[in-house]
Amino acid sequence: MPQQETIVSAPELTLDITPEAAEILRASDLLSGRPRTMPVHATYFDTPAQDLAAAGFTLSLTKTGGETGDQRLQTVKATGSTADLFLLPEWRQTLTGDRPVLDDHTPVPALLGAKIADIGPLFELRVMRHVWTLPGQGAGIELALDQGEVTAADRRAMRCAIRLALRDGPPAALYALARRLDEIAPLRLAAQTEAEHGFRLLGPVLHMHKAAPVALRRDMVAADGFRLIGSACLRQFRLNEPLIGPGNPEAVHQARVALRRLRSAFAICKPMLQDEEAGRLNRESRWLAGMLGEARDLDVLRMRCRSEALRARLEPARMAAYAQAQAALESRRARLLMLDLGEYLAISPWTALPSAAEIRDLPLREFAAAALDRFRRKVKKDGIDLADLGDEARHELRKDAKKLRYAAEFFAPLFAEKRRRRRAARFLAALEALQDRMGALNDLVSAPELVERLGLAGDPKAAALLGTKRDKRAQIEAAAEAHDAFVDAKRFWR
């Protein structure tokens, strides 16, 4: 009979590292001891339609070689909304064969029913694993370095990652060690698990990652909602970060969207975030978004150019902007920001403060309704007589409309009744139309300064990028009409 156990994983932190950085780390004094080394071969199973993954679970069979011979471990792991941000429930059992044992000791039969007969292997992970046990101040941490590849059908991807598993001590020790490791060799907060690497190999090649719906539930409290929302934004940024380059303009756009959504989450949840760290993380996120901004602005300007000659004149500045963006992303400042954000969301030190405890414990749906009301009132009030506002006031209105739109997208799953879903769709459509009109107006307003800075003001072909007073009036009128339609849209949360 297989030996079975249901466990809750110890706190873990996974970090991406390049093979070159891994060799630097292995040669350091920190990892001076002799590691335990073993080949690892993991096979992931699911139905062809990936029904188990859709339910929020993975099923793997891992064969590990070592001094004691091969061992086979079956693991069913809860992921996504079915698990906590930091502790993943698992069902483990040792096996003797190469096929999973799918009995009632795991949730798989209840999840799949008759579809369980369709389960088969989908992809494989083959790595060499090196394991060190690192004693620390009040903490014992196991460091595992995996180097190898994930394969699915005829596609493959390199796998080089570090997993830090806490054996004893406070979870913050994981992040303290990660920062210490980064002083020796650059590493980054991982955005994907090894299972997600495999599933992505089965799908189309993605050149950018849009924001995914956040799996909020009505039984959550406000603090739970902020953690999930923030984690989703952080994940979207990290998924897009490695894709950023001048040949892929959508990746930098989506990375900036992720940072804007994250900063909006901090603004939406400000009443419950009473610590200084929240403000610092918000400012650092704004810095990073700003470092990517020039590349995005030049991408937009380039798309508006009808003249190939003018596009050619833009290209040196655009390449320089992407070089600046890449340098910022590769900086220790940006790497530490990702670790700091990960720690802030996963460990949530702000929840221990007595201030705002009552707000943090509010039912999430109640907190969401109040937040949506607050931001809607501001957008409604500040857009009155929009045609008479100055450029700066209209810019602030545009930013507030973005925050409201992100809040509505975040919280819409909490209001899933049929009538509310229809209202949410209409409300978001009206808000998106307002945001688009305000964005087009902002492009007209900011274009002269950008064209001047690029030294293109004297180029006759650049005149088309500037628009005319008539164009601006038309955009203002369209924005005012969109604001009126937004005001008329019914609230889906009341």
UniProtKB/TrEMBL annotation:
<dbReference type="InterPro" id="IPR007899">
    <property type="entry name" value="CHAD_dom"/>
</dbReference>
<dbReference type="InterPro" id="IPR038186">
    <property type="entry name" value="CHAD_dom_sf"/>
</dbReference>
<dbReference type="InterPro" id="IPR023577">
    <property type="entry name" value="CYTH_domain"/>
</dbReference>
<dbReference type="InterPro" id="IPR033469">
    <property type="entry name" value="CYTH-like_dom_sf"/>
</dbReference>
<dbReference type="Pfam" id="PF01928">
    <property type="entry name" value="CYTH"/>
</dbReference>
<feature type="domain" description="CHAD">
    <location>
        <begin position="219"/>
        <end position="491"/>
    </location>
</feature>
<protein>
    <submittedName>
        <fullName>CHAD domain containing protein</fullName>
    </submittedName>
</protein>
<dbReference type="Pfam" id="PF05235">
    <property type="entry name" value="CHAD"/>
</dbReference>
